[in-house]
Design a protein that fits this description.
heterodimer; A: mainly alpha; two-stranded parallel sheet; B: mainly alpha; 13 helices; elongated
């Protein structure tokens, strides 16, 4: 009986933890969905106009993915304010965040926004495989 | 909704004050104030003011095109470096290097989304002002900077028998529906056609070969045909005055684009080849942009770009710590 009780408690704790993290990540994931839809549907309407790499929408998507809804939106808003015809533009990456992803599970947008980093990692891996 | 109203209020005021300003001016020089054509010209005046305010952006774009000529050798090198690498990551790496190249030379062919975004609230404001005319007349109110008397006058004015505030969906008073239908459809066609032609011209003449080969091209080609449909369908809800505004602003864009294609084409595009041929036929040097009276405007530090050789990969450990 005692064992059953503790199993129930464990189940409830893990369930509430899952629900908690889903709820915690909900605003972030909603924003990610909206940004992805925007990039898929609206961005192609006018082609590339952004003066930066990564483009504002790619920046926003990475910022929200890496930093969450609040800080990510703040970073994206600041980038949008920077993006006007009198700014020189250029390469402007999202600052590094605290989230870590397991090997090979890095979100696509993070990879695409930091191509040289990941190309170097890819070359490293290929080299190691060849050496082995 | 209230939040939206608060944001839109200054835009509505600005749009209506410019329109009323033109209306007063045109009436002063003797045009009949109550005539629909006077109000039509006022709407066109509004477009001229808004687009003229964006001329500095256009000039900036022209200057950037000129800078792009200087960049060609470096861009060519970059293309050679990534030749045959078609995977997405390599394309991204190339895009990144290209951007840092633009920054290094102080020229950037892209004008950011601000010039486009800034026009949207004005368009919405005009839409709201014109759509609200009849309601404001019935309630005895003015809209924005328009007095009630002006609202009544606008509501009663018409061109070809169709009120400027009527749309295909929300026609005017009984008796003028046919005029509203015909004029709306003609204006919707004019609006979508002007947009389509401009876009088509850019794609056919002013895109470099790499841009044509990019994976986004197919999406953009699709959009070329989808956009007119979207606007055509949206147009049934646009008051005729809004259709006039949109068509005029499209015509302005078309004119600007024609100038760009003719005089400042994108390097590597069919228009650039055509320009080179025209100049060769006249016995002029190939790159007018490098010479001529405007040469001193090109940044001095961009000049000795040739012997620099391979650029080092920019920001290898890129993510700046804050």
């Amino acid at each position: 009986m005692h064992e059953l009780g503790s199993a129930v408690v464990r189940f409830l704790v893990s369930t509430s933890r899952t629900i908690g993290s889903v709820l915690w990540d909900l605003p972030r994931n909603i924003l990610i969905l909206l940004l992805k839809a925007y990039r898929r549907i609206v961005s192609p309407l006018y082609g590339q106009v952004c003066r930066f790499f990564p483009s504002c929408s790619a920046y926003a998507l990475e910022a929200v993915t890496v930093h969450g809804a609040v800080k990510g939106s703040w970073l994206a808003a600041r980038r949008l304010a920077r993006c006007h015809p009198w700014n020189a533009g250029g390469v402007d990456h999202v600052p590094a965040g605290h989230r870590h992803w397991p090997e090979g599970r890095t979100p696509m947008i993070v990879v695409l926004n930091n191509p040289d980093q990941f190309l170097a990692a890819q070359a490293d891996e290929d080299g190691r495989r060849e050496a082995a | 909704m209230d939040f939206f109203e608060t944001i839109m209020f200054p835009f509505k005021w600005l749009v209506s004050v410019i329109m009323v300003g033109f209306h007063e001016g045109l009436s002063f020089i003797g045009l009949p104030p109550a005539n629909g054509w006077t109000w039509t010209l006022s709407i066109i005046g509004l477009v001229l003011v808004l687009r003229a305010a964006l001329i500095p952006v256009f000039v900036k774009q022209i200057k950037a095109q000129r800078g792009m000529q200087l960049l060609q050798p470096d861009l060519k090198k970059l293309q050679d470096k990534y030749k045959g690498k078609t995977d997405q990551l390599s394309r991204q790496a190339m895009a990144q290097e290209q951007m840092s190249l633009y920054k290094k030379h102080g020229t950037n062919p892209f004008s950011a989304c601000l010039p486009m975004l800034i026009q949207m609230p004005f368009f919405f404001a005009l839409f709201q002002v014109l759509s609200g005319i009849t309601a404001a007349k019935d309630k005895g109110q003015g809209i924005g900077a328009m007095s009630h008397a002006q609202v009544v006058q606008f509501d009663q004015s018409s061109i070809f028998g169709a009120p400027l505030s009527a749309s295909l969906l929300h026609g005017g008073a009984p008796g003028n529906e046919v005029a509203v239908w015909i004029l709306s459809i003609v204006m919707i066609l004019a609006m979508t056609a002007s947009q389509f032609i401009t876009q088509k011209q850019i794609m056919a003449k002013n895109m470099s070969e790499e841009a044509m080969a990019s994976p986004f091209m197919r999406q953009q080609k699709m959009m070329l045909y989808i956009l007119p449909i979207v606007f055509g369908v949206g147009g049934i809800n646009f008051p005729i005055g809004v259709l006039i505004y949109w068509t005029t602003t499209n015509l302005w864009t078309m004119g600007q684009q024609f100038f760009v294609i003719r005089r400042m084409p994108t390097p590597g595009s069919p228009a650039a080849k055509a320009l080179a041929e025209r100049r060769a036929a006249k016995g002029l040097p190939v790159l007018p942009i490098l010479g001529g009276k405007k040469a001193e405007e090109t940044p001095a530090e961009a000049e000795p770009e040739k012997p620099k050789g391979q650029r080092v990969q920019p920001q290898r450990k890129n993510r700046k710590k804050k």
